[in-house]
Amino acid sequence: MFGCVRKGTSEGAGRDGQREQCVLLVEKTKKITDCLTANVQGSCAAYKGPLPLDQERALNRELGLHGAAVRKYRAFRACAGAVGDPGSGCSRARLQQRCPSPGLCLLCLIPDALLQRVAELEKVNAEFLRTKQQLEQEFNQKRAKFKELYLAKEEDLKRQNAVLQAAQDDLGQLRTQLMEAHAEMENIKAIATVSETTKQEAIDEVKRQWQEEVASLQAIMKETVRDYELQYHHRMEQERAQWSQYRENVEREIADLRRRLSEGQEEENLENEMKKAQEDAEKLRSVVMPMEKEIAALKEKLAEAEEKIKAASEVKELNHYLEAEKSCRTDLEMYVAVLNTQKSVLQEDAEKLRKELHEVCHLLEQERQQHNQLKHTWQKANDQFLESQRLLMRDMQRMEIVLTSEQLRQVEELKKKDQEEDDQQRLSKRKEEKQKDSDDETKASCSLAPEETLTQLSNEEVHVNSTHGSVHSLDADLLLSSGESFNKPDTDMFKDGLRRAQSTDSLGTSGSLQCKALGYNNKAKSAGNLDESDFGPLVGADSASENFDTASLGSLQMPSGFMLTKDQEKAIKAMTPEQEETASLLSSVTQGVESAYVSPSGYRLVSETEWNLLQKEVQNAGNKLGRRCDMCSNYEKQLQGIQIQEAETRDQVKKLQVMLRQANDQLEKTMKDKQELEDYMKQSAEDSSNQISLLMAKCQKSENFLSELQQAFLQAKRSVQEQMAVLTQSREQVSEELVRLQKDNESLQGKHSLHVSLQQAEDFILPEGAEELRELILKYREDIISVRTAADHLEEKLKAEILFLKEQIQAEQYLKENIEETLQLEIENCKEEIASISSLKAELERIKAEKEQLESSSQENLQQLESLQEAKNALEEQLKKETAAKANLEQLVFEEKNKAQRLQTELDVSEQVQRDFVKLSQTLQVQLERIRQADSLERIRAILNDTKLTDINQLPET
């Protein structure tokens, strides 16, 4: 456009052309002014006054002025600066007067219409400025309101920040409390672990002490047992020496008795023997009773040691129960099952004991019946024996009447031959027995060689012939006992010896304690005897060192296996003084007959056949005299069997007593375990209830703390949400205000463009004079400067506001992000706390379930304990019944023992009667022989007068 103006000025030099150029220049100036007003940055300087050279060049380059246009524009600026405000009512003359270069200045050439137009424009500009000022005032007011609103929002934010800070402080306190609670829980757990470890250490210490005590008790018990074994062995050695000495004394007494019997003093010797036997029995009792007392003391000590061991085992079982209760509840159920099994076992044992007691009662009843039968049979046997003795005496009297002196001599010769044969058989049997004994000794020494350091005792019953004490039965029992003693284990032998040593007084027989491998010759010795208090003294026999003649007795063995006693043998075979006299008479008679045989008066001769028949009858009569009947031997065997059965029954009764005692001990132990289990269950229930109450209290505290945390969290969340709502609302308001301001700015810019368009549409009349033009230009320049200043001020103000708003928005965004992060962290922490609290709830529920299970198990255990109590009561009642039955059985056994003693006494009486009958028969034989040899009736009367006896004891000993 400046190029067009420059072209117009160069083509026409007329006045109209200048006016057109001025109009164009004014329009250009208005555009420049509008541009300066609208442009915020404003790179050009003010138009009033001269410009510096660099600014002028920059402005010319910007406006596109060159050459004359530059000079004219420079003059215009100078004119505008000299005239001043063109709208101040100046005229053309005034413009021309004031213009420094009227020929060149365009203002001086502006027409009046243009000046009027400029004046109108100035008015419009003034109105625009007033409107602008009003807008600025309104903007300032709104800015103040916005500032107040901003300050209020800042205060609200500060207040909200304070509330949020308080909530954060509360949350921090709650966290610290939660940490303290966790620390307290950890401390409780540590205390629990420490208490558990200390408890385990205490249990281990108690266990170790118990083990040491058990070991010491075992060592003491072993030493005590060893000492008592040594003492017992020593006493046994002493007793064996005493018994050997006593045996030697008895042998000497037997030899003395034999010698005295040969002298006819049998009655006194028997009385002395009875006295000595009684003295020996008293000695035996004095030896046996202290041994029994010591055995009882040993048993008591063993029982005490067993009780201590049981107590220690109970402590061990209690430790095991504690560990099992800590590890798992199933062990308790297993223990209850074990108790049930023990209960069932005890019930089975009680049933077995009941059955055995019934069997024992049945056996005792059978024995009672057998005793009654045996009593009747013995009475019958005694009557039959007396009748047979009477018949034999009559036969002997008849035979003695028939026999002559020669026949008597032949009978004596036959007796001597038989005696020689018996001696030879006896010697051969003795040699065979010695050979067998030597073989047995070698076998025993070989079998006991690896056990030379041990001292073993065996006590075997040697069942003696209760009627006659035969040597054969003693030898047989001795061999059997020695054979069995070597085959038995050492411990069984020792126990059996103790048992039989205890039962010597209760039973009718006393066993012999056999010593094996004690550094002596390993020879089995036995001394079989009967208790003198019950059966009277019988003859004992030693299988190894007895010196009496067994071969002579072996010849008297009957087919039934029964052996004669010494008294019977002596009564039958020993020669009395009368027989010696008769033998001397017979020898004298035979000598006389050899020289010159004359038959004495009162005798007759018999033939050879009659003599042989008579010898056979005499031999049969002798055999009948020396032989017992089969019924007697059978009865004797039955009596021995009954005695054996009685001993076995007593052993069974003792075993049953031991089993009952063991059952009672087991029952007491079970009751003690049950009581301890009840105490432990009560203690564990109390401990568990205390722990559950503590955990419930802690859980309640945790729940309260969690509810408080949740309430604080919800309150903080609500306050933060409210703050966020307020902030979002304020942000929306600020954004709305900014949009409104932008709209106002745009509307203002639109109004300005509208005014520009209106001004362009109107006819602009340039002032005619240069002065007016100059004034107009100066006015425009001032307007442009003011607009520039206002625009700069507005620009700075808007920049400041924009920066403030940006910073405020950034601060709000940063604060919002911080609040979101804080809330997110708090939410995560609250989630973690909620998870921990949920785990605590689960733990509490688990503890409640365990408590319920423990209560149910305790109820079950209580029920089981009640059932055990009922079983205990039943067992106690059963035990009372068994004890009553036991007392009844003992009474029955005592009665049977008395019956056996009575039978034994009757048997002894019958034996004595037999001896008396033998003595009487021998005496009668002697008297018959004397009567037969008498020469006259006076001699016969004298013999008969001498034989008037009032008592059987008055008979002479044969």
Automatic annotation (TrEMBL):
Protein keywords: Acetylation, Apoptosis, Coiled coil, Cytoplasm, Cytoplasmic vesicle, Endocytosis, Endosome, Phosphoprotein, Protein transport, Transport
Localization terms from the record: Cytoplasmic vesicle; Early endosome; Recycling endosome
Residue ranges of domain Rabaptin GTPase-Rab5 binding in the record: 629-935
Comp. bias regions, Basic and acidic residues: 413-443
Molecular function in Gene Ontology: growth factor activity; GTPase activator activity
Superkingdom of source: Eukaryota
Pfam families assigned to the protein according to its UniProt record, in alphabetical order: Rab5-bind, Rabaptin
Start and end residues of each stretch annotated as Disordered: 413-448
GO CC entries: early endosome; endocytic vesicle; recycling endosome
Keyword Oxidoreductase listed: no
Coiled-coil blocks: 118-384, 646-687, 717-751, 827-906
Domain Rabaptin coiled-coil per the UniProt entry, residue ranges: 113-591
Main location: cytoplasm
Keyword Transport belongs to the record: yes
InterPro entries, alphabetized: Rabaptin, Rabaptin_CC, Rabaptin_Rab5-bd_dom
Membrane-spanning segments: none
UniProt record, GO biological process: apoptotic process; endocytosis; Golgi to plasma membrane transport; protein transport
Record function comment: Rab effector protein acting as linker between gamma-adaptin, RAB4A and RAB5A. Involved in endocytic membrane fusion and membrane trafficking of recycling endosomes. Involved in KCNH1 channels trafficking to and from the cell membrane. Stimulates RABGEF1 mediated nucleotide exchange on RAB5A. Mediates the traffic of PKD1:PKD2 complex from the endoplasmic reticulum through the Golgi to the cilium.
UniProt family annotation: Belongs to the rabaptin family.
Protein name from the UniProt record: Rab GTPase-binding effector protein 1
Source organism of this protein record: Chloebia gouldiae (Gouldian finch)
